[in-house]
Amino acid sequence: MDELMDRQEQLANSAEETYSAIRGCIITAQNKVSSAVNTAMVLAYHEIGEQVYKACGENDRAGYGKRLLQYLAERLTTEFGTGFSAANLRNMRQFFCMFPKRNALRSELSWTHYRLLMRVQDTKARQFYLEECAKSGWSSRQLERQIHTMFYQCLLASQDQAPVSAEIQTTEPKPEYEKVIKDPYVMEFLQIRPDTHVYESSL
């Protein structure tokens, strides 16, 4: 009887170890896919922003620039969806203008991160948030919270910076693959409609 129980326990342990190993493989693969999609989006939007900047200038107040931007938006939206509206093309141009060095872009940050960073007008604060976000693995929600609570300004004003700094070092779990794919920006980029079934061939 004892021998049978030992055998069953060994099988249960073996099954759990196998499950954990397989689960680890899946999560690693999912994280790689998530990282690849985000990196591709950020680099593509940076390049699009550069093209828009070269064609229309830093702003499109001039009639030609405004008409060209509208033309591009209409053509791109027809072919690739709403992610390339005139407003989004302006965001991409702003992205290029604020972060002109392509090789300085951080692979840890998604397009959502960069959109939040672009709202920070103070250059030093923006750089601080960028570096802390990449170093600490903040989610876009964490980054938004730190910006809204003016963490950078609080840190500068604090006489004892260590506890203030330690407060933000806790990180949330990495986003699950399914949540990353369902991110509206990712869905637009991959031309996946949220109200349709997604098949392997589509991905």
Commentary on this structure:
By secondary structure, the chain is mainly α. The protein has helices at residues 2-56, 63-80, 86-98, 111-117, 123-136, 140-148, 151-157, 161-167, 177-181, 184-189. The mean pLDDT is 81.
Summarize this, please?
By secondary structure, this protein is an all-alpha fold. Helices cover 69% and strands 0% of the residues. The longest helix is centred in the N-terminal third of the chain and has 55 residues, at 2-56.
Topology summary:
Blueprint: H1 2-56, H2 63-80, H3 86-98, H4 111-117, H5 123-136, H6 140-148, H7 151-157, H8 161-167, H9 177-181, H10 184-189
Helix pairs in contact: 1-3, 4-6
